[in-house]
Design brief:
This protein has helices at about 225-230, 340-350, 365-370, 375-385, and strands at about 10-15, 20-25, 45-50, 65-75, 80, 90-100, 125-135, 145, 160-165, 180, 190, 195-200, 205-210, 215-220, 235-245, 250-255, 260-270, 280-285, 290-300, 310, 320-325, 330-340, 390-395. It has 3 domains: about 10-75, no CATH class; about 80-190, no CATH class; about 195-420, Jelly Rolls (Sandwich), CATH 2.60.120.230. It is mostly beta strands. It is about 10% helix and about 35% strand. The chain is built from 4 helices and 23 strands. One of its GO terms (molecular function) is copper ion binding.
Length: about 425
Amino acid sequence: MEDEHQDCKNFRVMTHGNLTKFIFVRKFDTCDSQDYVIEEGTTHIVYSIGDGPLFSINGLNISATSHNGMQRTQLLKNFEPIIQKGNEPLVHHIEVFHCVADPEEKIPLYSGPCTATNRPQATQVCKKVIAAWAMGATPFTYPREAGLPIGGLDFNRFVMLEVHYNNQNMKDDWVDSSGVRVHVTDELRENDAAVLELGLEYIDKMAIPPRQKVFTLSGYCITECTGISLPPEGIVIFGSQLHTHLTGVRVFTKHIRDGKELKEVNRDNHYSTHFQEIRMLKERTILLPGDALITTCWYNTEDRTNITVGGFAISDEMCVNYIYYYPKSNLEVCKSSISDSNLINYFKLMNELENQPTSPKLGITDNYNSIEWNPIRVRILDELYHQSPIYMQCNQSSGARYPGDWSRVPLTKISHHLPIPKRDCP
């Protein structure tokens, strides 16, 4: 569709050998409903190159031009992955975990699936994230005042590399040697940094109905968890990596203190699972003990015919924000899911009031799949997620949970919402 108003000005083209630069000027927000708002987060750039000058768009077929495509980037920008050449479509994301154990303890060597029954139990201490990468991410550099501590007298020398693959064609002859290159310095920085996981648990208790233009899920890091785990002076969040799978289209994390919503930690309104950078935040967040964080993901399942559940597979979904911060605390995971009892009651309600074949004998995924989804049942599920108590993962770096009853915790309430930013439009 032709744009009714041209908001791009001062076009210039410069060519030097095989390199062509195309330059123009445009406001970030043109206030034109047909234009893309350039804001923090991902920008999708669509381009097409043809032969000779273009005098009219009448009859123009962009798909027939000699060169066209789409590039994702972060225009308003302020460890390094080593992906084996040719395996870019295969490698979905990578995490490196430190094995938090006695420095003299030897962790058994293991190579295989994370959930295999023959995985040595001793490797379960390898849970502290020290590096993370996902599709589209570029090398990440820590700020001058902080660095990830590696080594020392009390540091166990074992780490675990976890690679998630997306082998859509089920090729059985694909061999991969991808990994992560870590650059270290012997000059100790002022603060020890760490990584904290926010969002939803990687399990099927949270689900997205089919044929939805927008369906939202939220994961909570609650007051009770930060209150028991963070240092009195709080922590400084300087980086963030948002993460979903194929149906995610928007992700953001809200910051709550005493019921008042403060400036968001990070937001990407044009999120793409194929462009998951670790982004250095322009404005850092001070997270104090007792503060809460809510990570919300928007999903689009218009092309799916049945439920999408949470899980590790690329066809499943996730909602995660890996935040990079200092000084290092012992809090490793602050994530949630709906309480077990409320989900059981929901499946019971579907059977008794909606005549759906849900049953206590079925597993969670099977119960979701047994429901014939219509607008009313979708709305009931949405209200369930936004009103029910939650089950919390408030976990230490060793994998142990902080003391407390985390099985049925009230949702974080916001009494004072952050005003919606005003657009500078006439």
